[in-house]
């Protein structure tokens, strides 16, 4: 996603990280590199100069907080400024106890119908009951496409193949879904050119019939800075509450699209990152920038640390960080990795690890962890408390009980001992250092 911008920003940061000392000329050089990377990604010139001006001023005037080096503080300032450029962290909340009507807007070719089905799947996964109304009467095959895609997630679609009156279809669709206890109804509308008066008139009429709780504007990320004008044209017709940017996986102008959309004041709610039905994600400026800079998904790590604190008792955390853990603690760590979205997710979100670990290695390790869970479950309470008790005959019994060969049990014991030794050696310093670098320690 946005590979050019990612490469440019990371190369600029490398200069700071690898430098022996930080002075004014180095900060100005970093500023120029950042300017180049953002301008090449089609970010508005005014915004670029504002960011780099803030970066220079803050880097030269601010004193790093205790425990954070000057280099790390400059990285943190850049992270803050880029996140600010992309909007706020506010999250839209669907109202419980009522039907939330969501109007999907956008010009032709923005990927509106595809995004409607992707959003239906995402919201269904989040536990909402979702229905869809297909009111795009302009593009042949739009209703068929919508039904085919929504079928995969068992989302019901209402549409009228022969009817060309979109507002009437919306009215009938809302009546059809009345009293069926749906939480959200997505309304897919027609898309033409933004200047076409009849499209905007149609949007006004649909807006009156639907009385939507939220209007989502879908914008093609490949148009870059033009996002601003497009959002403005629609906003005058139906107040846009949120923006979805598509095709960010293939666009050199993605940075411009994100920045321009954020500049409209409407919140960027979701981004499309690929062709598959799962390639739509909730947009968070801080998470996005963290991944761009190779600092990992900072918020995801913070969430994980919070969960470790709330779900793991203090004694356990002390034992783990001091290298005195037993097999139950090791099992707890495996369970946490699974809850956090698997090893791949953790490594992708971990500062410095992003993109470094090969796909097949991660897959192998994930499969191994899955086996280990069964093996640990086959141990007695005493064996979990003190794995040193496990001798050859116990290995045989555990292997039989778990359904895995003896060498897998031995592999687990070896991994447990290695993990324990590593924790003992670092005394938790590695995690503390990592959190300090992110300004969280």
Automatic annotation (TrEMBL):
One Pfam family it belongs to: SRP54
Keywords, alphabetical: Cytoplasm, GTP-binding, Hydrolase, Nucleotide-binding, Ribonucleoprotein, RNA-binding, Signal recognition particle
Catalytic activity: GTP + H2O = GDP + phosphate + H(+)
Localization of this protein: Cytoplasm
EC number: 3.6.5.4
SUPFAM superfamilies linked: Domain of the SRP/SRP receptor G-proteins (SSF47364), P-loop containing nucleoside triphosphate hydrolases (SSF52540), Signal peptide-binding domain (SSF47446)
Domain of life: Archaea
GO molecular function annotation: 7S RNA binding; GTP binding; GTPase activity
Signal peptide as annotated in the record: none
Residues covered by the Signal recognition particle SRP54 helical bundle domain: 1-86
Residue intervals of the SRP54-type proteins GTP-binding domain: 99-294
Keyword Magnesium: no
Single GO BP term: SRP-dependent cotranslational protein targeting to membrane
InterPro entries hit by this protein: AAA+_ATPase, P-loop_NTPase, Signal_recog_part_SRP54_M_sf, Signal_recog_particl_SRP54_hlx, Signal_recog_particle_SRP54_M, SRP/SRP_N, SRP54, SRP54_GTPase_dom
One GO CC term, this protein: signal recognition particle
Functional description taken from the UniProt entry: Involved in targeting and insertion of nascent membrane proteins into the cytoplasmic membrane. Binds to the hydrophobic signal sequence of the ribosome-nascent chain (RNC) as it emerges from the ribosomes. The SRP-RNC complex is then targeted to the cytoplasmic membrane where it interacts with the SRP receptor FtsY.
Domain text: Composed of three domains: the N-terminal N domain, which is responsible for interactions with the ribosome, the central G domain, which binds GTP, and the C-terminal M domain, which binds the RNA and the signal sequence of the RNC.
Family membership: Belongs to the GTP-binding SRP family. SRP54 subfamily.
Record-given protein name: Signal recognition particle 54 kDa protein
Organism from which the protein derives: Nitrosotalea sinensis
Classification lineage: Archaea, Nitrososphaerota, Nitrososphaeria, Nitrosotaleales, Nitrosotaleaceae
